[in-house]
Inverse folding.
């Protein structure tokens, strides 16, 4: 009898002291997060059975930043995004949205999130206005602000003219825009877009990219893609994911530097013999591409300049001289062969 | 309150497809036919039973059988209404809209359930109008009608709860419909085993059978056991649905 009472008291005591210890720490950590990052992902992993789709990923996204998640198909981009939006619970790790723990207080955290999944979640039987109003209600936009929110979202996504049309009758591009409008209608702090430009025509892609840039003034944006120019066009920072692992986290400039290499394509209408070209100072190696096009390698910065001058002087009929960049695939290959995770200056 | 938003959309979407309208029309037509034939029968036997002490009245002869038939018809109809609740959203991948909105899983499930319940309430109200139209000419036993309606409503609410749960189990609406129909029919006929010589078991079967609890309400016996049976039934399947949807997110 006595022992059980003691146990109870002890347990209570332990719980109390635990709470006291925990609380100040909690308060110390949170304001710091609020200042710097809207999204904080901490050692998140996700397993499907034995298969590890996302392996121990951590990153931060700051306010006003556009983060591009880049990776081949099946790399874990969508799974990561689903975990950020509460569609999947991580097997391990934590996610904070604007300082709120997504797993502890899902409602509070999700209120600050807008999410466009890879397939836009649209109800075909509703018209655009009805659908967006429903989304506004779901995201607790107060009724007085709903109409204004609807107008703003439609205007931003170029949907003003199709408000009364059934979603089922819209073209794919318009549906994609409705999907984006749905994600931003409640002006969330964080907008997460899973392949927002897939299946759109070039003009629409430009518009969507413009919209994403515009969004980044007020929101943080995470978008996933496997198209490199898209990342270069809209993102401030890039993370490359491969086989569930984060293999690169760098600013966009850093990525571009990584991709420039020292090879150039040289096109000469009246090309001299290969051996003559190979004798040029600073040229390390030369490959013949076809008849009169060559790939020249050399790290000397003035090599190209000299080549151009020589070509003109000798009357070789220079018609092409262009730098070659590593493609995304090549970046992948070069990155995956290196072991450690690269952290650029941005992080 | 958020569940009402989900419920309202569920309800509205139902009426945007021809399914809801055709169900309302077909159910009403079938039951009107049964109602009229019941009235015809009453008119035939009215003379014979007029003098008999304690003979059944018009309410028992007309209203109760209509409600009883309505239960059978709805047993066929409810699976078609509930089949698409979750499975259709899964298939069209619209579930993530609800999952990433600030809603709890309970609100999502209750919202969907209330949406269907609203539609079923309309069906039951339309059915109730038929016996109630007799009020123009005769005195009805309103208590009996009320007990029958309560029974019918609780019954279809339980149907809907099972339908919702089975809809959370699959991506394919038709699979949900077929399995719901199977389970409902099984629960309906479960007490037939009571006829065989199973001893104690038949008591249990009869107790679990949905029909038994409905019959007593249909006869005007308001037993709280019956009401609690249905409420427990509904709660159980709603809780199971919430857990099933939660399992979609969790690692396993």
């Amino acid at each position: 009898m006595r022992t059980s009472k003691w146990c109870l008291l002890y347990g209570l005591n332990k719980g109390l002291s635990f709470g006291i210890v925990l609380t100040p720490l909690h308060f110390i950590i949170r304001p710091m997060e609020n200042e710097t990052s809207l999204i904080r992902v901490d050692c998140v992993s996700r397993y499907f059975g034995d298969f590890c789709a996302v392996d121990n990923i951590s990153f931060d996204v700051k306010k006003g930043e556009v983060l591009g998640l880049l990776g081949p198909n099946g790399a874990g981009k969508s799974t990561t995004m689903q975990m950020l939006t509460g569609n999947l619970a991580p097997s391990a790790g934590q996610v904070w949205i604007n300082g709120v723990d997504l797993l502890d207080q899902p409602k509070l955290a999700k209120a600050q999130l807008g999410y466009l999944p890879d397939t836009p979640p649209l109800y075909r039987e509703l018209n655009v206005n009805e659908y967006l109003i429903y989304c506004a209600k779901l995201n607790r936009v107060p009724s007085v602000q709903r109409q204004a929110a609807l107008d703003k979202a439609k205007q931003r996504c170029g949907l003003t003219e199709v408000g009364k049309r059934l979603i089922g009758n819209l073209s794919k591009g318009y549906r994609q825009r409705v999907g984006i409008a749905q994600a931003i209608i409640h002006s969330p702090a964080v907008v997460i877009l899973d392949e927002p430009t897939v299946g759109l025509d070039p003009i629409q892609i430009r518009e969507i990219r413009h919209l994403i840039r515009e969004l980044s003034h007020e929101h943080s944006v995470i978008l996933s893609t496997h198209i490199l120019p898209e990342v270069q066009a809209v993102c401030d920072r890039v993370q490359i994911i491969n086989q569930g692992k984060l293999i690169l986290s760098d600013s966009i400039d850093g990525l571009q530097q990584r991709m420039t290499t020292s090879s150039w394509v040289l096109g000469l209408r009246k090309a001299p013999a290969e051996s003559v070209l190979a004798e040029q100072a600073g040229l390390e190696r030369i490959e013949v591409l076809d008849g009169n096009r060559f790939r020249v390698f050399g790290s000397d910065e003035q090599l190209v300049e000299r080549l151009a001058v020589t070509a003109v002087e000798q009357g070789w009929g220079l018609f092409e001289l262009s730098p070659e960049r590593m493609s995304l695939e090549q970046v992948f290959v070069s990155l995956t062969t290196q072991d450690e995770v690269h952290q650029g200056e941005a992080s | 309150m958020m569940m009402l938003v989900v419920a309202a959309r569920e309800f509205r979407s139902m009426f945007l497809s021809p399914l809801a309208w055709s169900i309302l029309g077909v159910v009403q037509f079938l039951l009107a036919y049964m109602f009229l034939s019941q009235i015809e029968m009453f008119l035939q036997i009215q003379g014979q039973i007029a003098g008999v002490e304690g003979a059944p009245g018009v309410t028992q002869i007309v209203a109760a059988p209509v409600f009883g038939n309505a239960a059978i018809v709805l047993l066929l109809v409810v699976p078609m209404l509930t089949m698409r609740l979750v499975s259709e959203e899964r298939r069209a991948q619209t579930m993530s809209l609800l999952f990433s909105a600030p809603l709890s899983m309970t609100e999502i499930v209750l919202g969907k359930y209330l949406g269907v319940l609203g539609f079923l309430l309309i069906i039951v109200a339309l059915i109730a109008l038929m016996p109630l139209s007799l009020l123009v000419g005769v005195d009805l036993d309103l208590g009996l009608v009320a007990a029958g309606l309560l029974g019918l409503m609780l019954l279809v609410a339980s149907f809907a709860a099972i339908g919702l749960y089975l809809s959370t189990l699959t991506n394919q609406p038709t699979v949900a419909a077929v399995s719901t129909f199977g389970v409902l029919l099984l629960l309906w006929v479960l007490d037939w085993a009571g006829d065989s010589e199973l001893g104690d078991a038949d008591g249990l079967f009869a107790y679990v059978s949905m029909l038994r609890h409905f019959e007593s309400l249909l006869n005007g016996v308001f037993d709280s056991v019956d009401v609690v049976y249905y409420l427990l039934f509904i709660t159980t399947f709603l809780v199971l649905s919430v857990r099933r949807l939660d399992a979609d997110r969790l690692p396993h």
About this structure: The two ends of chain B are 32 Å apart (CA to CA).
